[in-house]
Design a protein that fits this description.
The chain has 523 residues and is α+β, with helices and mostly antiparallel strands. The protein is built from 16 helices and 20 strands. It folds into three domains: 3-36 and 204-274 and 490-520, D-Maltodextrin-Binding Protein, domain 2, CATH 3.40.190.10; 59-183, Dipeptide-binding Protein, domain 1 (Alpha-Beta Complex); 281-486, Dipeptide-binding Protein, domain 3 (Roll). The chain is 27% helix and 19% strand. A hairpin with a 5-residue loop joins strand 2 and strand 3 (67-69). It starts with a helix and ends in a 6-residue tail after the last strand. The model is unreliable at 1-22 and 266-271 (pLDDT under 50).
């Protein structure tokens, strides 16, 4: 960044009004503006972060990320593993005081499945194996035929086509949060962002949205009074790490958004809090196999030339991703790949040789566009471009778009190469392998063939699928349609007044109700 540009940004940041001067208000950072606060219309982590403050699903997560009672106080499964019964707590209400029963969850599951909802993550019903979910999503059956029922006000029954031992884990995913039928019918599509319309069932309720801030207040109707939690929470969107740094130093920000660990020292000293737990995340590149310029040899060369140490110079070698699945994933049969021990010079030579055999060179170049979104990973994008240009005949242009356009283009397959980041929805290898699937993924029409799909479907119903998962991952890696880059660690700046910031959940979530502000007053 040029000096003049730096000072323009710095001055602008100092002129930003304080996010809140309320006592006992926690201000947390977001890297981009959420597209929707409707659990069935959210697009990614920015929305999920806020939704986990506002809503509670059938199950929640304990501090270690394991499934714990949420709106359901307990659950049970049939001997064949195909019928799950969730027992809803009695006396639950929405934030407006109206009763919340199993009927609300039934409505929510059916709305998620209904193609008219256009839910980004309705395919998670297929992932769970819910009976008739595919036919409902395809419009072949009405939502009433979905394999979910409410035999009484306090029981929700979910019927599966095949066993899923990790279903309680999956029920913490935001797409399975309950929504209010009454609020939606009364207020229409934007119900979740309107004061007087938005109702939730979690620790916090919606207050207002505007000026890049989402304001929440403690939900007095929540099942747990949470006396020590902050009274109010403000989620504020920042355009850059620099903006967050300025706000943090000015005491206008209590907790920053997750920042790559390599950038955590930008403030000139060790971050006040650093996430040390290994997370279930992978940063990777997706190469569109339908693009005629991206043949298998070209994809292999592009993968081979990438120096992960140069991409993440401040990171540990263990953070470099050579496998899609993080080695610490529960149930993963990790094996170290032989190419990890090759010198980068050897990998460079092999990549150039492969590309040369395709006939690509400076006189016959391949022209690529790398699609990305505004984020904290600009330095990674620049490094990828520099490294790919070391291959004779490879020309790369970066196309940076907003979050909503990025998701839209991803869904339509309108890209050649894109940089993406995946945070697993549950702790199991299948949560990563689904990225290669034709049914369980963003990447139409899928990165792998039908045999991969069938093997994955079969493996997910087994009690001991580790070896099959390992084989499926190797097939996906050998296709070079997806290139793992890093299981990146992240840091967050945390003001000393904030207590309880200790992330042990491998998915990285730390909802606001688990935090406290010292003496209930901010300096």
């Amino acid at each position: 960044m040029r000096l003049s540009s730096f000072f323009r940004t710095l001055c602008f940041s100092f002129l930003l009004p304080s996010a809140s001067l309320w006592a006992d208000t926690l201000v947390r950072g977001l890297p981009t503006n959420p597209v929707s606060l409707d659990p069935h219309r959210f697009l990614g982590t920015p929305e999920a972060t806020v939704l986990k403050d506002m809503y509670e699903g059938l199950t929640s997560q304990d501090e270690l990320g394991k499934p714990a009672p949420g709106a359901a106080e307990s659950w049970s499964v049939s001997e064949d593993g195909r019928v799950w019964s969730f027992h809803i707590r009695k006396g639950l209400t929405w934030s407006d005081g109206s009763p919340l029963t199993s009927a609300d969850f039934l409505y929510s599951f059916r709305r998620l499945a209904d193609p008219a909802t256009r839910a980004q993550y309705r395919w998670y019903l297929d992932l769970a194996g819910v009976v008739n979910s595919r036919k409902v999503a395809a419009g072949e059956l009405s939502a009433e035929h979905l394999g979910v029922s409410a035999p009484d006000l306090h029981t929700l029954e979910i019927k599966l086509e095949a066993p899923r031992i990790w279903l309680p884990n999956l029920m913490t995913f935001p797409a399975f949060l309950p929504v209010s039928e009454r609020a939606i019918k009364r207020c229409g599509p934007l119900w979740a962002e309107q004061k007087g319309c938005a109702v939730s069932n979690g620790p916090y309720r919606f207050l207002s949205l505007g000026d890049g801030r989402i304001r929440l207040g403690k939900n007095s109707a929540y099942r747990d009074p949470l006396k020590s939690s902050p009274e109010k929470v403000v989620w504020e969107v920042f355009g850059s790490i620099l903006d967050e740094l300025v706000a943090f130093r000015e005491k206008k920000l209590d907790i920053s958004s997750p920042i790559p660990a390599e950038l955590g020292l930008v403030q000139g000293r060790k971050p006040l809090s650093d996430r040390q737990v290994r997370q279930l995340n992978t940063t990777y590149l997706v190469l569109n196999t339908r693009d005629p310029q991206l043949s298998l040899p070209v994809r292999k060369a592009l993968a081979g030339i990438l120096d992960r140490q140069a991409l993440f110079p401040g990171g540990n070698q263990s953070d470099q991703a050579w496998t899609l699945i993080p080695p610490w994933t529960q149930g993963y049969l990790f094996q170290r790949l032989s190419e990890v021990d090759y010198s980068q010079g050897r990998r460079d030579e092999a990549a150039r040789s492969i590309l040369q055999q395709t006939g690509i060179d400076e006189t016959n170049p391949v022209r690529l566009q790398l699609l990305t979104t505004h984020s904290h990973y600009r330095w990674v994008v620049n490094s990828i471009v520099v490294q790919w240009r070391r291959l004779p005949g490879v020309e790369v242009e970066v196309v940076s778009v907003g979050w909503e356009e990025y998701i839209d283009r991803l869904n339509r397959g309108d890209y050649q190469v894109l940089l993406n980041h995946w945070l697993a929805a549950y702790n199991d290898p299948s949560a990563f392998l689904l990225l290669g699937s034709r049914s369980f993924t963003f990447f139409p029409p899928g990165l792998m063939d039908e045999s991969y799909e069938n093997e994955l479907q079969s493996a997910m119903s087994l009690d001991e699928p580790a070896e099959i998962y390992r084989q499926l991952e190797q097939k996906l890696l050998n296709s070079h349609s997806l290139i793992p880059l890093s299981h990146i660690r992240v840091s967050q700046w945390v003001q000393p007044e904030v207590k309880g910031f200790d992330i042990k959940n491998p998915e990285g979530w730390l909802p606001s109700y688990r935090l406290q502000l010292e003496s209930g007053v901010k300096n």
